[in-house]
Write a structure and sequence with these properties.
Elements lengths: L1 H24 L6 H8 L3 H7 L3 H21 L8 H18 L1 H11 L6 H9 L2 H12 L8 H8 L2 H11 L6 H15 L4
Helix pairs in contact: 1-2, 1-4, 1-6, 2-3, 4-5, 4-6, 4-7, 5-6, 5-8, 6-10
């Protein structure tokens, strides 16, 4: 049991080091040797867990995406109204992005790089299925605009990444009022005007 835990700890240290180094240096300026050094393991140890740097980054992306969506949907009930469900999910996503800033920044970088392969991206999208199902129901009920899910995400969820980054830089402090205004803007951008 202790050996298994040690193995899990090493893998987790590699994932954590990858997130920190990619956030600070970018994908291409993050060699495996730096990841190993930061994780306090030998470079050869990486290859016990990951095939190569691409696999390490893809697996880290999938792990973080799973953690992100688990948090986002933890209290969501598919029986909720479309509006109540979206508000709950949006606010949970905002909470995650502001509390788990390093993980959220890593995901934002992954969303904007060709470094993540298509299979890993598709696996990441699968983690968003409850939100996609909510939007599909909202479109069917005439509540959500009949737009591509990519556009819905771009207008309602992606602005949170911008807000997270400017808060991290110290340019803007999000308080409850700002978050509520941001939520209302997100909801207004995707709901059908009535």
């Amino acid at each position: 049991m202790a050996k298994l835990q040690k193995s899990i700890d090493k893998r987790n240290a590699l994932v954590k080091a990858t997130i920190e180094l990619v956030n600070n240096n970018g994908f291409h300026a993050t060699p495996m040797s730096k990841i190993a050094k930061m994780a306090n393991v030998s470079p050869a140890t990486i290859y016990l867990y990951f095939e190569n740097k691409q696999d390490l980054v893809n697996q880290t992306y999938i792990d973080v995406k799973a953690e992100y969506t688990k948090y986002a949907f933890a209290t969501y009930d598919p029986k909720m109204s479309v509006e109540a469900g979206f508000e709950l999910i949006w606010k949970r996503i905002a909470d995650f992005k502001l509390k788990e800033c390093e993980n959220a920044m890593f995901l934002a970088q992954c969303d904007n790089t060709p470094m993540i392969d298509d299979q890993s991206r598709q696996q990441g999208i699968m983690h968003l299925q409850p939100l996609l199902d909510l939007w599909a129901r909202g479109k069917k009920e005439g509540i959500i605009k009949p737009m591509s899910d990519y556009l819905l995400y771009a207008y309602s969820i992606n602005p949170l990444s911008f807000l997270m980054i400017i808060q991290k830089r110290g340019d803007f402090q999000l308080d409850e009022r700002h978050l509520e205004e941001a939520y209302q803007s997100a909801w207004s951008s995707i709901k059908v005007c009535q």
